[in-house]
Design brief:
By secondary structure, this protein is an all-alpha fold. It contains 2 helices and no strands. Helix 1 runs antiparallel to helix 2. InterPro entries: DUF4235.
């Protein structure tokens, strides 16, 4: 029973952390892209003036940054819940 309550209680926290992670990851990606490419905007997949290589490189970089930020935020959130409740969220 306590496991179910802990999981339900963590759900809204996890959602908010996920939204925050997406915002942070987007900001980090924009800055890294500016440094890596010298361009202020990352290419869109439908931008006909950009080549496949540039578009796929931008997508891979964006995905990697998002995954790392999301994992760090999820892990930090779970650790915080354990500190507050004494239980790891399921």
């Amino acid at each position: 029973m306590a496991k179910v309550v802990n999981k339900v209680a963590y759900k809204p926290v996890g959602i908010l952390l996920g939204i925050g992670a997406g915002i942070v990851a987007g900001a980090i990606f924009k800055e890294v892209w500016k440094i890596a490419s010298g361009d202020n905007e990352a290419p869109s997949a439908t931008d006909e003036d950009r080549g496949w290589g540039e578009i796929l490189a931008a997508a891979a970089l964006q995905g990697a940054i998002f995954a790392v930020v999301r994992a760090a935020v999820d892990r930090g959130g779970a650790t915080g819940v354990r500190r507050l409740t004494g239980r790891w969220p399921s």
